[in-house]
Design a protein that fits this description.
mainly alpha, MetI-like fold, 2 domains, membrane, MetI-like_sf
Length: 361
């Protein structure tokens, strides 16, 4: 097992490097780099990307130092533009910039945002509470509801209970999260009916002056609707996964043998079936959480006026804030690869009979 884990850790290096190379090359051809953004704003043109057509100049030349002028740069001194390029580091060849960036990232030095005068680390930490709130509570609620419901559906397979709950689950899965979020706002946040929950933000004004109990109540009061909107689709998927996993185990020979020996149905289900059926569900918990956490919904954050990682990623992409884009990509990519290894270890912890080493051999 140790050799398997070591190989998985070593594979992180080429995988992460491939992710960074692909995205770095792709960015070279995306219209409207940081220099273009600054020049367009100085000329009062707003978002520079609106001025590009499909057949415009090659972005690699426009953004990274060709002889042609920048869009929006007419009338500005060439020396000023060159100084702007040096400030952003675009006076260096792409390969040199990439190698410098990766060297810094290996030391977890992600630099400073181009447009916010704050380090990428500080910026991510500033947005982290929102994403942790949505990711943690969405995952927890999904597991607390889905596992008991999935087990019950497996036991009652084919009954009216299974049919009705399956219909509800399909409806829940089909409803987009942002549409459900709007529905919650209309019903419970003063849209047209009841003003029960706040409309925006993670905390109330004056939060720092509340008592400990008051802070806890205020926090949960604010996150209730966003968490419900984030949970709905994941809840449906996890419930069906639990049910199908239980059904597969219930039909196996060892279950029939246990029943034939007179073992109680409860002991058969929770003493024999549960551990094997829950293997795929529980072992995937780290991956599920990291997916919800780092895949923060931009639309849900926008609807509820939450300033999290989803909005940060969108704003960085629009502004071509490369240190934020690549810094978060590197960090979250590394986290995702480590979580995949953790998921494999969870399989072994839950069921020691699993041996990845022998399977590879």
């Amino acid at each position: 097992m140790a050799a398997y884990i070591l190989r998985r850790f070593l594979l992180i290096i080429p995988t992460l490097l491939g992710i960074m190379i692909f995205n770095f090359v792709l960015v070279q051809f995306v219209p409207g780099g940081p220099v273009e953004q600054v020049l367009a704003k100085m000329q009062g043109q707003g978002d520079v990307t609106a001025g590009f057509s499909g057949g415009s100049q090659d972005m690699a030349e426009e953004t990274f130092g060709s002889d042609s002028d920048y869009v929006g740069a007419r009338g500005l001194p060439k020396e000023f533009i060159e100084e702007l390029e040096r400030e952003f580091g675009f006076d260096k060849p792409p390969l040199e910039r990439f190698l410098d960036m990766m060297w810094n990232y290996m030391r977890f030095d992600f630099g400073e945002s181009y447009f916010r005068s704050i380090s990428v680390w500080d910026l991510v930490l500033e947005k982290m509470p929102v994403s942790i709130s949505l990711g943690l509570w969405s995952t927890l609620i999904a597991y607390l509801v889905s596992i008991p419901l999935g087990i019950r559906k497996a036991i009652k397979d084919g009954t009216s209970f299974d049919t009705y709950t399956s219909a509800l689950i399909i409806v829940a899965y089909a409803i987009p999260g942002f549409l459900f979020a709007i529905l919650l706002l209309v019903l419970f946040a003063g849209g047209s009916y009841w003003q029960i929950f706040p409309l925006r933000g993670l905390t109330s004004d004056g939060f720092e002056n509340f008592s400990l109990f008051g802070k806890i109540v205020d926090y949960f009061w604010h996150i209730t609707l966003p968490v419900l909107a984030s949970t709905i689709s994941g809840f449906a998927t996890l419930t069906l996964l639990t049910k199908n996993s239980f059904l597969d185990e219930i039909k196996k020979q060892y279950v029939m043998t246990a029943r034939a020996k007179g073992v109680s149905e409860r002991k058969v289900l929770y003493g024999h079936v549960f551990r094997n059926a829950m293997l795929i569900v529980i072992a995937g918990l780290p991956a599920v959480f990291i997916g919800v956490f780092f895949g923060s919904s931009l639309i849900i954050e926008t609807i509820f006026s939450l300033d999290g990682l989803g909005r940060l990623g969108f704003e960085a992409a629009v502004a071509r804030d490369y240190p934020v884009i690549f810094g978060t990509l590197y960090f979250f990519g590394l986290m995702g690869l480590l979580v995949n290894i953790l998921s494999d270890l969870m399989y072994v912890v839950i069921d020691p009979r699993i041996d990845f080493e022998s399977r590879e051999g």
